[in-house]
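Researcher: Here's a chain I'd like modeled. Treat it as a single chain, no partners, no ligands.
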Amino acid sequence: MRNLRFRRAARTSALGTAALIAALSLTACQDGGQAAAAASTTAPDTSSTQPKGGTEAPAPQGGAASGSDSASDPGKTSGAGSTKADPASDKQQGDAKDTGPVTRACDGGNTKVTLTPVPRPLNHMLLTVTNTGSEACNAYYYPFLRFGEAQSTPPVIEESKPQAVVTVLPGESAYAGVMTSSADGSGSGGYSTKKVAVSFQGREGSGSTGPSANVSLSKAVYVDSTLTVTYWQTDMDDALMH
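Model: Modeled as a single isolated chain. Structure tokens:
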């Protein structure tokens, strides 16, 4: 009888212990579930901000330009916006390309030529060439003159050679002095004529270039073997000094 009571008490104790363990397990499960739920509600959802497929997120608007943008558009610089070429430099660049040295020679087609007597020095005339064209021209070296039916041109006075080529702008003039005969009568083979042909030299100085100019004189001029001419000058006084 006593043993039966002991077995019942032991069974009751075992049942109570099992019930206690089950209750503790149930509580632990509930606590874990609540913790998991709390974690799921407090943790931020980053699935919408993370790029898919491992690609990089796009740069924010308003920031620095990407490298590809800078490479494709040379007007863009990092943090400096777009830049434009200075039109003044282009103009200066377009103005510098258009004003090179003048190489066009003056000739009978782009000038007006006159030959007039002067009171001083004696037996001298002033040859004037005026640019009637729209572009500058160079009066190279000295003019070739033929008085009347002469077969040769008069020699040049070497001392009259200028330091630079005479450039004649549109509307402006160059000058050359002509000594027609000696003042002391030492010349020979003299004759009178009212016809004069003027030819121009080119840059190379190897002969005449372009059309010549025929000058009609209102009064016949006497020339002899001392006939000479100066180089082209920019000033008429320089042309008559020799």
